[in-house]
What does this fold into?
Amino acid sequence: MNLLSVNNLHVSFQIKKQELAALIDVSFTLNRGERIAIVGESGAGKSILGFSIVNLISKPGFIKSGSVKLERKELTTMNLRQLQEVRGKRIAMIFQDPMMTLNPVISIGDQLVETIRSHTKITYKDARNIAIKKLQHVQISSPEKRFDQYPHELSGGMRQRVIIASVLLLNPDVIIADEPTTALDVTIQAEILQLLLDICHDNGVALVLISHDLGVVSKVAERTLVMYAGRIVEEGPTLEIINDPQHPYTQGLLNALPQMTLPGQRLNQIQGSMPSLTERPTGCAFHPRCPYATDKCQQEQPNFIHSGVSSVSCFLVEDMVNEFADQSVEPHE
Amino acid sequence: MREIKKDLIHHPVPGSRWSHIWSGFIGDKLAVFALFIFIFYCLVSFLAPLLAPFDLNDPAFIDLINAEIAPSWISQDYRFLLGTDAQGRDLLSIILYGTRLSLTIGLCAVAIQATLGICIGLIAGYSGGRIDNFLMRCADIQLSFSNMMVAIVFLAIFQSIFGIAMYQQLAMVILILVIGLSEWPLFARTVRASVLAEKQQEYVDAARVMGISSKRIMFRHILPNTLSPILVIFTVQIANAIVTEAALSFLGLGMPVTEPSLGSLISDGFTYMFSGSWWICVIPSATLIILILAMNMLGDWLRDHLNPKVYKD
Amino acid sequence: MLIFLLRRLIQACFVMIIISVISFAVQDKLGDPVQQMVGLTVPQDERDQLREELGLNDGFIIQYWRFATRAIQGDLGTSYYYKQPTLEVIFQKVPATIELAFCAIILVVLVATPCGVLAAIKPKHLISRLLMIISSIGLSVPIFIVAIFMVYLFSIEWGLAPSFGRGQTTEIFAIWDSGLFTKDGLHHLLLPSLSLAIALMPIFIRLIRAEMMEVLQSEYIRFAWSKGLSAPRIYFIHALKNTMLPVITVGGIQAGTLVAYTILTETIFQWPGMGFLFMDAVSRVDTPLISAYLIVVGAMFVITNTLVDVIYGLVNPTVRLASHGS
It folds into this structure.
C-alpha cells in the first residue's frame, strides 16, 4: 500500500468574483522511504501542492476536489483536530526561508520543546533532553547553549538545521521540503542537502522535495514530477527524466541548464514565460512556448499516458507511442 | 521557433490609476455617502451668512426672553428650528456659523501642517545624512509630546500673558497656528518614507545626470509620486484638527463665546444638561460627530484604496 | 543595555532642560511676583527695592540658573493662590490623576486585547464586524462628548454613579490619597475612568487587530500550524507576543494623549487631579503653579517614554542583543 496517495487534486483561488485554478488534476503516489522531487518554475504550483497535502493553503485558496490519502485516511475532509494529529507527527514540512520560519521572539529550545509536548504527554525536562539530542544529531555545536538562544543569533545554515531537527522530533513518516536550500549560501546548500539525505535514509522517512533546481533534485530524488501551470506534465525515475526527457518543457528545462551549453554559445532559453493564474492558455498550457505545438495542442488537453518507465502529458508523445504500438501490432496481423 | 500566439494569451487591460480608483469609489456606497456629507457640510457652512435665519451680529440676536426654548418639534415654536441657547440665540444659526469656523480652522491648520511637513519631509528624505537625522530627531521629540497637550499648554500661556480680551481677537489665528505647527511631523515622516523609496528609482538618477536642480527634482518629480499617502493623512488630519479645536474650545482655550465654534457651544451647553435643556449640548455634539465620522470614513476608504500594495494585485 | 539606557537618559536630560527653559520663560513673563507678594498700597520705590532684593532685575540667564538650581533641589516656587510650595500642591493632586489613568489603562488592556484578537482571528464574524463598526464610530466621538454622554446617561438619567468629585478616600503610606479602597471611592472612579477608557479603546482595538492580522500571515505562524500545534497556543503565544511589540510602542506615544484627555475628563467630572489643578491655575494666572506643572508633566512624559522604550527592549529579544553587539 502506498504511504501517500494524491488523486485528481484540484486547488483553486477565489479572488473577488473569479475562481482561478492553481492545481489541476494532480495525482501521484509516495511509498514508504521513497524520495521524490517536484520540479518546475516559480508559479507552477509546486509549493501549493506541498501545502495542500496537509491542507495548509491560506485563503483565498481552497481544495476544490480530489483526494489526499495517508495510508487509508483521507486528509482533505479532516477537521482541524484530526489534522493536528497528522501535521508534525506523520507529515512534517520544511519551509523555504529559515529566518522567516522560526518565530523571532521565542527561543529555539521552546520552539523545539513545544513540538514534542503538543503531541505527547511528557515533562519539559524530558522534552528538553530529546531536543538537545536532536540538535546534536543535526550537527549543531554546543546544543545546550543554542537551546536558549533566539533565531536571529544563529546563521542561516544553523537555522535550517534547527528546523530539520524540529521536523524530526516526532519521527514523521513523510517530510515535505519546500525549497530547503534556496535561501542558503551555496557552500551550505550541499551540507544541508546531505544532512537531509542521510536523515531520510537512516530513519526510513519518505521525502517530497520541492525545488526548481534540477541539480539538487538529481542528487536526492529517486523519482521526479515535473509541473507546469498547475499540472504534472511528466513523471518518472529521476535518471530517466534527466537523460531522456520526453515532454518538450522538460527538454527545455534541461537544455537551459548552463552545463548543457558550450562556452561562448548563447544559453538556451524557453521562449516566453509561465502564464499566471489569470492568463492560462486553452488546451495544453505549454503550447504557446512549445516548438512542436500543433492546432490540436491549442484546443485539447492531452492525457497523462505511460511512455516507457515515465508518464507524460503531451500529444506529441502520445502520437509517437500510439504509432509505436500500431507498428508493433502490425506484424502480428 | 514558432511565434508565441499572443491572441490566445489573455492580458488584463491596464487602466489608469485614477479611473481605477474612481470606479472603485462609485462602487462603494458608504464612501460616496461620506463624501456627500462632507461636501454638504462645506457648502452649508460656506453659505452660512445666506442660510442662517438670523444674523449673528445683529444685537437683537441675543434676547434673553427667547432663552432656552426647546427645538421646534417639541416647543412648537417655529421661529427657532433647533431651539435657542441660554442667551436666546438661535441654535441653527449659531451652529451654521460654528461649523463654518470649525471647518475653516481645520482646513487652514492642516494646510499649514501639510506645507511645513511636506517641505521638511522632502528635504530630510532627499538630503539624507546629518540633515535627515537632525530633522527626524526633532520630529520624534515633537511626536512624543501629544499635540493636544502642546496646544493646551501653549494656548494657556498665551491667554495668561495677553489677557482674555486680546486673546479673543486673535483666537482663530492662534488656534490655526498652534494646531498647524504641532502636527507637521506626521506629514514629514510619511513624505520622507515615500521619498526614500522613490529615491531608489532610476528616474531620479536620470534627472540628476541631466543636471536638473535638486529642488526641481524634489518638487516636480518625486512629490507627485508621494501624493497618495499624503491624501490619506490629509482627510484624517482635518478631522483631528477639528476635534482638537473643539476640545480646546471646550476647555475655554479656544474660540470665545461671541464667535463660538462647535466646541465652545458644547462646553456652554454642558452646564445646561443638568437643568434639562439638553438640546443646547446635544445638537452641536451630533453635528460635530457626524462631520468627524464622515471624514474618518473617507480617510479609511482612501487608505484602503490608495495603498499601492493593495492596488498591485 | 547600559549604553542604551545611558543614551536615553542623556536625551531625557536634554528634553528636560528645554522644558525647564520654557517653564522659566513662562514664569518670567507672566504676572508680577512683587505684585502678588505685597498689596496695592505699597509705594513704587519700595516695590523697586523688593525687585532688586529678589534679583528680578538680573539678566535672563542668571535668573534661569537660579531657577534651575532651585528646581533640582525640589523648590519650584510658591503658588500665589495656595500659598504653599507648588510641588507640594501638585503632589497632593497626583494620586487622583494617576489612579484615574491607571484604571483607564487597565480597562483598555483588558477589553481591547481580546476584542482585537477576536477581530483578527475571525474577521468575517458578526461580532468582529460589529466591533470594527463601533470602533470606527468611537474614533469619531471626541472624548469630552463621550464623557458628557456618560454623565448624562449614567448620572442624570439613570442615577447609577456619581458624576463629580472623588468621593471618600483613604490615605495609604501617609502620602497617597487613594480612592481605590473605599466603595464610595470606586463608585466615583467608575464613570471618569470608563470615559477615558472608551476614548482610547478604538485606537487599540484597531491597532491590535491590524497587527495581529499581519502577524497571522507570517511564515512562522504557518510553520507552527504545520507542526500541528494547538490553535490557542498559536494565537496566544506565537502570534500575540509579536503583535504586542508595536502595540507597546504606540501605547507609549499615546501616553501624551492620555495626559491631554485626562485634563478634559477631570474638567468634566470635577475630578480633583493635576489636570483640573492646571486649568484652575490658568484661569487664576497662578504663574508658579503653571510653570511647575509644566515641569512635572514634562518629567512624567520623559519618564514614561523612557520606560516604554526599556520595556520594549526587554520584551523584544532581537533588540536586547543588538545593543550588546553579539
User: Anything to note?
Assistant: Confidence is low (pLDDT under 50) at residues 321-326 of chain C. Chain C touches chain B at residues 15, 26, 29-31, 136-137, 139-145, 148, 151-152, 156, 252-261, 263-264, 267-268, 278-279, 282-283, 285, 287, 290, 294, 297, 301, 305 (CB under 8 Å).
